[in-house]
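Field guide to reading this record: the first block holds the primary sequence, the second block holds the structure written as discrete tokens, and the final block holds curator observations. Each block starts with its own label. This record concerns FASCICLIN-like arabinogalactan 2, catalogued under organism Hibiscus trionum.

BLOCK 1 — SEQUENCE
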Amino acid sequence: MSPPPTAALSLLFLLLISFSTTTSNAHNITRILAKYPQFSSFNHYLTATHLASQINRRQTITVLVLDNTAMSSLLSKHFSLYTLKNILSLHVLVDYFGSKKLHRISKGTTLSSTMFQATGAAPGTSGFVNITNLKGGKVGFGAEENEGKLDASFVKSVKEIPYNISVIQISHPLDSAEAEAPTAPPSELNLTEIMSKQGCKAFADLLKATDADETFNQNLDAGLTVFCPTDKVVKDFMPKYKNLTASKKKSLLLYHGIPVYMNMQVLKTNTGTMNTLATDGVNNFDFTVDKDDEVVMLDTTVVTAKITGIVKDEEPLIVYNINKVLLPKEIFKPVETASAPDSDEDADAPADSEPADDQTLDDDNGVQGLEGRTLVMLVLSLCIGMLLMGV
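BLOCK 2 — STRUCTURE
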């Protein structure tokens, strides 16, 4: 058998790198737990406290999940949502502990930092969890500042993606006076007021005039990303805007929001197709996020806008400035050639009819990725076949 050609080996190496990069950080704790009804309460409060999005942004994480019975004992104490966030943060370890690792801990005990420790609100070592191997193959868990008491024990492994995310069930909530201390709520966010004070008053006024602001506000608690054209950009666009029907005006405005918090780092990492607040079962109303060096761009196929700054970044809300109004292909005619000038004038006329829906494939982060992975795997298989045959 002749040795494999250098070109094929090089291609195989590049594809392996590409595939590993594509699949990294591809977990979604909400979708993982959605398959298990016994964890529905825990899953709900991960979303309500915005911990779910923080977990999904971590590349290495372990979630100590509680079933509905264990959650009931915790909820019976009537903690505020903000205190509950600290308590659940103590149940999220910023390290990977699969079932095998838990039962093979060096010296039988170890400390792991948690997301509660990472908040900076945990004094001393109160944000650490003690993990100890006990007799009979059992594993115990307890808050480090809880005088060595192990409140919970390992029940079972729910989901493991080495060495990305491990979801393991424990028997009881971890007891921590520091995590359970009353927590003041953050200052209430007023989206349109924030935008009006930061060069986006014209866009904010349009939101209020169409009641689109209600939809934006309804998504604030769960997480919201807004792309706001500056006042001058909106002023220049107004002649086209006035020609739209009331329903299209509202869809256009909702098209400028994503129902999840995505800071700049996440946008740069998770480029691809994004659904928006305007997305429904009939029309996609999506756009593609791309980047050129450090510049993030939003491509609607009708116009490409650039992110020019950040108006507000206070999770669960982030508001970006953009240099153009985003024009959805469901309303405006797409640019037909790649060489056409990138200008709002390319989309003067509304589309005569709405295009057929595109199939949008979501990965575990809510960003399109399966199509690319399928192609990589197909080409990878062909390369391996070539190597085995000695082509």
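BLOCK 3 — OBSERVATIONS
The mean pLDDT is 81.
The chain has 15 helices and 14 strands.
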